[in-house]
Amino acid sequence: MRFRDTFFLTSLQTAVRIISAIVLNKIIAIYVGPAGLAIIGQFNNFAGIVTGLASGSTQTGIVKKVAESDSKDNRRKIYSNALLIMVTLSLPSSMGVYFFSESIAELVFYDKSYSGIVQFSAISIIFYCLNMYLLAVLNGLREIPLLTCLNVSLSIVALVIVSILTGDFGTKGAIIGIMAAQIIVFTLFSAYIWRKYGRELFIISKQLIETTTIKVLLKFGGVTLVSGVLSSITLLLVRTMIIDASSLDMAGVWEAASKVAVNFNMLFSIPLVMHYLPKFAQLADFGKIGKEIRTIVFIVVAIAFAIIFIIQYFSYELIVLLFSEEFSSAASILSLVLAAEVFRIIGGLYLASFMANQIFLKPIIVDVVFSTSYVMFIFLWSYLDKLDLNTVAQSYLFATMIYSVMTYAFHKALGMKH
Asked: How many CB atoms lie within 10 A of CB 58?
């Protein structure tokens, strides 16, 4: 599929995800306020850690290996081994979450009454993993129209269910709705995909189990796992330090600014990475890869900063429109947070080139340095008793600058070697 077609479809699904997220955040903000938004952020980070462990974070590996496969038999081998990894890891993960639900509820949500929510999350883990598996397979097959339908369905179903349950049951209802959407969408789409591809995407065949393939997928998974788990743990730690230094409401205001930044990031990164990850997998010359990245970076930076410049003048109105008056203090840091996301988008492109060429150590180093620097900056401000929204945003900006510079430096060094 041509870049123009890929960009259109992925931009479409990204637009739907962003619009759905905007509407959903508005509903959540109205019903549960900053404190509720902070708790939902805690759940999302907790879910990110658990699903990363339960799936082996093999999505990137699945995309690459499926894209590279030149025969149906090779692809079936990847499907079987990927499913085996997910089933093997998700069962103990679900059991651990279920049996330690009370402790997790107190640690993550600051309230033991959330133990029932945690137990339900243990049941939903496998559905999170299977949805990630289907998304990765469809991306590797370049089934962009079907991939778009799946992503759009996840967004719309989540919007409808979470909106209804939040209105009726508050924060707990919102969390239940997030998990229920994963279960419903997988049930519907798995039936459709079964009819189109047969059972090969859903069967673990003993004859196709291969240690080499499992190791390759887990190597990719190791990088993604470190990145995902580090990211989620970092956000949990930052949110906890904000709560300790100020309040749950301030953590919710920071969460609001972060959500705007995430949507801003998705607008660029999802279409770019989905197009370039398989493409980078076919290029062995880092010089050519670097040229591709530099070309798109100039365009991205120009468009992104033009958007930030406009947003800066309407930041207060934007925050009130997207959330509510209770979140208005987020307007003062919005331009800083969005500028930080530009550095993350640039760094993400370089990281995609590493992953596509099976370079695993450097992405891990970058993620470790980013997370460590971010937490350390926050800790320093907290120690100096100067932790507020502005210093949190500054810390995030400095950390993303380090992230971007490191990815470029590593890529430059690899280009010189090759």
From this structure: 30
| Number of Cα atoms under 13 Å in the Cβ half of residue 121 | 29
Q: What is the pLDDT of residues 22-36, one digit of tens each?
A: 899 999 999 999 999
Per-chain mean pLDDT for the chain: 87
Report how far residue 287's alpha carbon sits from residue 279's, in angstroms, rounded to the nearest whole number. 14
Cα gap 116→409, rounded to integer Å: 47
Give residue 395's pLDDT.
96
* pLDDT reported for residue 276: 65
How far apart are alpha carbons 143 and 128 in whole angstroms?
Answer: 20
